[in-house]
Design a protein that fits this description.
The protein is α+β, with helices and mostly antiparallel strands and about 90 residues long. It is about 30% helix and about 20% strand. A two-stranded parallel sheet has the order 1-2.
Length: about 90
């Protein structure tokens, strides 16, 4: 769509991704216009244990625990908070 640009960056397992560095490189190469308004859409999951999956209850609780204690996407990818829009998704296990 006009006014939208898709930028794809690839990182290895031990590398620390930085969206800000990727966007700066995109501006330098001319992919993005300097001073462009950038909005990042970031997803976060709410794990609900009320689903009817065949997973054992202790595994559901353990997965929900790990999910709650994981780093959020904005800190993982170094996304500026003032430009991020959070989208919460409920997932039933």
């Amino acid at each position: 769509a006009p006014g939208f640009t898709r930028v794809i960056a690839h990182y290895g397992f031990m590398q620390s991704p930085s969206v800000q560095r990727v966007m700066a490189a995109a501006e330098e190469t001319g992919i993005l216009k300097t001073g462009s308004q950038i909005t990042y859409f970031v997803r976060s999951d709410d794990i609900m244990l009320t689903g009817n999956s065949k997973m054992a209850k202790w595994r559901k609780r353990f997965y929900a625990f790990l999910s709650r204690n994981a780093k959020d996407a904005t800190s993982t990818w170094n996304v500026p908070l003032e430009q991020a829009v959070g989208i919460r998704i409920s997932t039933k296990l």
